[in-house]
Amino acid sequence: MFQSINNAMDIAMEKDPSTVLFGEDVAFGGVFRCSLGLQDKYGASRVFNTPLTEQGIIGFGIGVAAAGTTAIAEIQFADYIYPGFDQLVNEAAKYRYRSGNEFNCGGLTVRAPWGAVGHGALYHSQSPEAFFAHCPGLKVVIPRGPIQAKGLLLSCIRDQNPCIFFEPKILYRMAAEEVPVNDYTLPLSEAEVLREGTDVTMIGWGTVVHVLLEVAQMAHDQLGVSCEVIDLQTILPYDSATIEKSVKKTGRAW
User: Measured between alpha carbons, how far is 151 from 243 in angstroms, rounded to an integer?
Assistant: First the structure.
């Protein structure tokens, strides 16, 4: 999956000369190598390291986005996004509203490796999306695999609202798919029904989706229960219509 993310940023930088990528260690490729080779291709003025300050990274991203640049900010681990929480919820999310739409930082996308791997302990395993899921003005997106990662990331980068893009880091090298090499996007705020069912609706995102698909198969095989599995994909604003349609059919949701 890390290659599809790299490819998405490569396409974004190639097609939009205003795009810049910055964060801790992104110049040499980052901890998970998602930005590998991009500084060599686009130069140190467009792909560069920052000091170790998440508040500063996001604040800088808000500033350059407000000035008209397409900004891709990397937080090295989602667990360390909290020092930048105020910048995201009080500045980025509200910038358009507080200026009466005179200014905005809609060109900002914040990327962060997300979730548990199994050996990361408390500071490298967190899933902080719930903290941002109730904040109007932000979009929060979590892909389940490489194809979705590329298409949804390009959509976030091009969307005219500040986006937080959480990347399930356990999938960086475990998830492999035939990802189209061309430029494509996937719609934000649109859930995907991955398995049709009639008895219960199961909703998830990111890595959890794969667990739900396994559980749905087990429920079918062992209990004769028909489960409908939905990948929410965008946490905020989420696709309520798809969920409502499914729950009206099944009568239950989990």
Answer: 22
Give CA separation, 225 vs 63, 118, 192, 202, 214, in Å: 52, 31, 21, 12, 13
Convert 178-216 to b/e letters by CB count within 10 Å (16 or more is b).
ebeeeeebbebbebbebbebebbbbbbbbbbbbebbebb
Contacts of 98 (CB under 8 A, 6+ apart): none
124 has catalytic annotation? yes
What order do you get walking across the sheet with 200-204 strand by strand? Answer: 192-195, 227-231, 200-204
State the pairing for strand pair 234-236/47-49: unpaired
Q: What are phi and psi for residue 230, nearest 5 degrees?
A: -120, 130
Which regions in the chain score pLDDT beneath 70? none
Sheet containing strand 163-168, strands side by side: 47-49, 20-23, 71-74, 108-114, 163-168, 139-141, 234-236
* Annotated catalytic residue 210: no
Catalytic residue among 24, 54, 74, 91: 54
SS3 state at 68: coil
Nearest to residue 136, comparing CAs of 186, 79, 97, 165? Answer: 97
For residue 118, the model assigns a pLDDT of: 80
What is residue 187's predicted lDDT score, i.e. its pLDDT?
98
pTM of the model: 0.97
pLDDT in the model for residue 225: 98
From the candidates 24, 91, 124, 210, give the one annotated as an active-site residue: 124
